Amino acid sequence: MTQSSSLISGVARRYAGSLYELAAESGSVEAVETGLGQVEALIGESADFKRLIESPVFSADDQFKAISAIAEKTGIDGLLANFLKVVARNRRLFALPGIITAFRAIAAEARGEIAADVVSAHELNATQQKELAATLKDVAGKDVAINLTVDPSILGGLIVKIGSRQIDTSLKTKLTSMKLALKEVG
Hints:
Blueprint: H1 2-26, H2 29-45, H3 47-54, H4 60-74, H5 78-89, H6 96-110, E1 113-120, H7 126-140, E2 143-150, E3 158-162, E4 165-168, H8 171-185
Parallel strand pairs: 1-2
Antiparallel strand pairs: 1-3, 3-4
Helix pairs in contact: 1-5, 1-6, 2-6, 4-5
């Protein structure tokens, strides 16, 4: 498992690095980052799209046609659309979630920031996001680019990932820990 996940992360880093270089040359880093956010949302929202990128059953041609149609329908064009088509042609769609994460990290580092993935039970308002960014800046010692995901199943609290560190203050995790502790006592 770790060998295949390190293979995916290696592929993802190489593709993300190439995409970042092309985006930086064309002055479209922000647009590409926004487009990648759209793609990430599609992966989360559509079981069919997720199956398309994860399943080895689809041919490169099928993946290419599907990605082309999806890009056209969602308005993803230019550099990002071409990049997604290349990834599909090369049968590397399985690495797309890792490519998105790696691209964000590369872009944040280039801006002098560090990327943080944050999962919350509900949408954070602008004030809460500013406070979180300030707190994470104190912890990380750098400005923090926050990638916020909402997951109601964590019930409350936050899960924050910065690099290889993870801070989990979710209510779901606390309840699970309590449940295990009670089982050990009883």
